[in-house]
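Structure first, sequence second, as always.
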């Protein structure tokens, strides 16, 4: 059974598995690099890592059109329910796991801030460990490098998705250190080349990953899909 992981630019990822559509951090309508608009994406589940505009912008539009379940930090889930009339929300918090129709998720720590666009407190920023079939995909989301990534590595990750943009998250050098901590089989870069401050040479980053780690890097263009075979 294939897991299709499509980069929709910036920090937005669409996962297709069986008949499930899981969307992470949709930022499409205003993103300079998104290959499609919010109206073009269907999702049964939307994962939200934190409250910043470049992660929450299109969540409500898609959720309210598709009837998606929005899963986020408790404060953010409450905000979508009360301020954006999202009907199906599930709040969780760091360290918590959740069984879902496609598999399960665990909310992991991230070192980052998380205020919502209207100034509402959004709790703390998070990442997600997503389990599907026999595969484990770790989305670090917006974060600095932190040594507890070594704890996440104990889960034996198949695919890690890491920010490399710098300034707002870890940059290329720290993300290579994260790759070493995580020991995943594969790694994909995220959260870069959206705007000039986070422009990075992903091909050069991939060469450093190849030369210095056991992890295989895959660099996508917005709209491209990476396929993982799951049992
Ligand atoms: Ni952010
Ligand atoms: Mn961001």
């Amino acid at each position: 059974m294939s897991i299709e992981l499509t980069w929709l630019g910036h920090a937005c990822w669409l996962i297709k598995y069986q008949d499930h559509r899981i969307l992470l951090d949709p930022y499409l309508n205003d993103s300079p690099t998104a290959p499609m608009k919010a109206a073009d994406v269907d999702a049964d589940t939307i994962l939200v890592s934190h409250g910043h505009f470049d992660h929450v912008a299109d969540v409500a539009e898609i959720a309210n059109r598709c009837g998606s379940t929005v899963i986020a930090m408790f404060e953010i889930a409450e905000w979508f329910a009360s301020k954006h009339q999202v009907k199906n929300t599930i709040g969780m918090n760091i360290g918590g796991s959740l069984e879902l129709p496609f598999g399960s998720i665990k909310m992991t720590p991230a070192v980052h801030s998380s205020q919502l666009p209207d100034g509402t407190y959004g709790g703390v920023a998070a990442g997600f460990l997503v389990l599907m079939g026999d595969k484990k995909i770790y989305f670090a989301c917006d974060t600095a490098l932190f040594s507890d990534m070594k704890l996440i590595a104990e889960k034996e990750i198949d695919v890690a998705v890491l920010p490399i943009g710098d300034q707002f998250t870890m940059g290329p050098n720290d993300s290579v250190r994260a790759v070493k901590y995580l020991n995943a089989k594969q790694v994909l870069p995220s959260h870069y080349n959206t705007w000039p401050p986070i422009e990075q040479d992903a091909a050069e980053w991939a060469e450093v990953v190849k030369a210095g780690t056991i992890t295989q890097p895959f660099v996508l263009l917005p709209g491209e899909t990476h396929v993982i075979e799951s049992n």
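Margin note: The mean pLDDT is 98.
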